[in-house]
């Protein structure tokens, strides 16, 4: 397959998953191979939720809507335009995927295939239902992809390069195990927001999306706030209030109750509103149902602090306080060229 054929295949996939939106699932008779795949994918979505209660129908649909927006011919062409793909040097690229949010490894999967390589996928046990089915759809609409997509639960052996995502502990294992192979190894990262006290209610409502989407489980979810001394959190809590039904999700509620009990027994100072706790803490990664915060005295000093700790940070949300800031409410809407950890996956794949 040439590059345009690969793009066309993913455009068809984007049209297919576009039927499963947050506004409801609606079958479009004009979508390629819909009679074969539509009901089956509905079933896979239900199975994904049964297997992992964090993967609600709403959050799965949210992830699918994001990908359907990205998988169009113009966006895909813009993404790949700067690169040169040598289709005669196809390699086998292994991907070890995380499973914290639905289809979290899809960008790597897309990147490998769009680059003309073979992909060997080892999925997390938390997210095993959706991607294999979408791969079958791809193979049906683009038969030349058959034989280029492999899913495995076995030990990885026959591969030329690897992209692996995990915790800081598993990353050390990956670095040892895959030494000698071209690799991208991703570790824990979290996202932060810098507030000045001048944010509007609309902006703070948008920030609540960055905090609560996927229950805060993604690396692009805001888990920490930097606020000026004497910051008044009343407006912040007001902006979050529309997310209060989240406490009705039993796994989230259990985490809220457990962490609250731990904090109270430890006599930590907390602010909370019945569905979220905020705690002063210098760490970047906060538990579920908790946001850490830290005061700053000077924005320039804070900017330097963020640069120093860049390896721990995925996104910085602010009103232009830092270079490459993400707008409020936009952390879960990255463009195809917004690479995880700022490592250009396509550039890596064109050089192996």
Describe this structure in words.
It comes from Gelidibacter salicanalis. Keywords: NADP. GO terms for molecular function: acyl-CoA dehydrogenase activity. It holds the Pfam family LuxC. With 352 residues, the protein is α/β, with parallel strands linked by helices. It has two domains: 3-185, Aldehyde Dehydrogenase, Chain A, domain 1; 190-317, Aldehyde Dehydrogenase, Chain A, domain 2 (3-Layer(aba) Sandwich), CATH 3.40.309.10. Helix content is 39%, strand content 16%. It contains twelve helices and 13 strands. The mean pLDDT is 96.
List the helices and strands and how they pair.
Blueprint: H1 3-17, E1 20-21, E2 24-25, H2 34-51, H3 57-70, H4 73-80, E3 92-96, H5 106-114, E4 118-122, H6 130-141, E5 149-151, E6 161-165, H7 168-177, E7 183-186, E8 190-194, H8 201-212, E9 222-228, H9 234-240, H10 250-265, E10 270-272, E11 277-280, E12 290-296, H11 299-308, E13 313-317, H12 345-349
Helix pairs in contact: 1-3, 1-6, 2-6, 8-9
Structural class: alpha/beta
- Taken in chain order, the helices and strands follow as HEEHHHEHEHEEHEEHEHHEEEHEH
The fourth-level CATH homologous superfamily of the largest domain is Aldehyde Dehydrogenase, Chain A, domain 1
For this structure, what is the CATH class of the largest domain? Alpha Beta
The level of helicity is 25-40%
Shape: globular
Sheet-strand content, in percent, reads 15-25%
**Count of alpha and pi helical runs:** 12
The count of domains is: 2
User: Taking strands numbered 1, 2, ... along the chain, how are they ordered across the largest sheet?
Assistant: 10-11-12-9-8-13
Low-confidence stretches: none
Do you know the CATH architecture of the largest domain?
Answer: 3-Layer(aba) Sandwich
Q: What is Rg?
A: 21 Å
Instruction: Give the termini distance in whole angstroms.
Output: 19 Å
Number of strands: 13
Largest beta-sheet details: 6 strands, mixed
Task: Determine the mean pLDDT.
Answer: 96
What is the CATH topology descriptor of the largest domain?
Answer: Aldehyde Dehydrogenase, Chain A, domain 1
């Amino acid at each position: 397959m040439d590059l345009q054929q690969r793009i066309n295949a993913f455009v068809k996939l984007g049209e297919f998953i576009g039927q499963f939106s947050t506004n409801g699932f609606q079958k479009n008779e004009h979508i390629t191979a819909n009679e074969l795949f539509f009901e089956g994918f509905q079933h896979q979505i239900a199975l994904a939720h049964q297997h992992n209660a964090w993967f609600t129908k709403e959050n799965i649909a949210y992830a699918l809507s994001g990908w359907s927006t990205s998988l169009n011919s113009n966006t895909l062409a813009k993404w790949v335009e700067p690169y040169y793909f040598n289709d005669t040097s196809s390699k086998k690229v292994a991907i070890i995927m995380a499973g914290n949010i639905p289809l979290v490894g899809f960008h790597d999967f897309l990147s490998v295939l769009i680059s003309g390589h073979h992909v060997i996928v080892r999925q997390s046990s938390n997210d095993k239902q959706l991607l294999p089915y979408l791969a079958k759809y791809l193979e049906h609409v683009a038969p030349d992809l058959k034989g280029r997509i492999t899913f495995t639960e076995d030990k990885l052996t026959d591969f030329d390069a690897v992209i692996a995502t995990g915790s800081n502990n598993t990353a050390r294992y990956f670095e040892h195990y895959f030494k000698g192979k071209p690799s991208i190894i991703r570790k824990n990262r979290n996202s932060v927001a810098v507030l000045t006290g001048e944010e509007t209610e609309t902006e703070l409502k948008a920030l609540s999306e960055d905090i609560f989407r996927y229950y805060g489980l993604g690396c692009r979810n805001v888990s920490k706030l930097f606020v000026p001394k004497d910051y008044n959190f009343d407006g912040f809590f007001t902006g979050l209030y529309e997310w209060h039904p989240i406490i009705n999700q039993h796994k989230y509620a259990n985490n809220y109750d457990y962490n609250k009990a731990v904090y109270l027994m430890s006599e930590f100072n907390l602010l909370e509103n019945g569905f979220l706790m905020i705690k002063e803490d210098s760490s970047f990664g906060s538990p579920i149902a908790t946001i850490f915060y830290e005061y700053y005295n000077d924005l320039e000093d804070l900017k330097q602090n963020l640069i120093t700790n860049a390896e721990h940070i995925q996104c910085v949300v602010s009103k232009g306080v830092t270079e490459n800031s993400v707008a409020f409410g936009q952390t879960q809407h990255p463009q195809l060229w917004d690479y995880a950890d700022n490592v250009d996956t396509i550039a890596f794949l064109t050089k192996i």
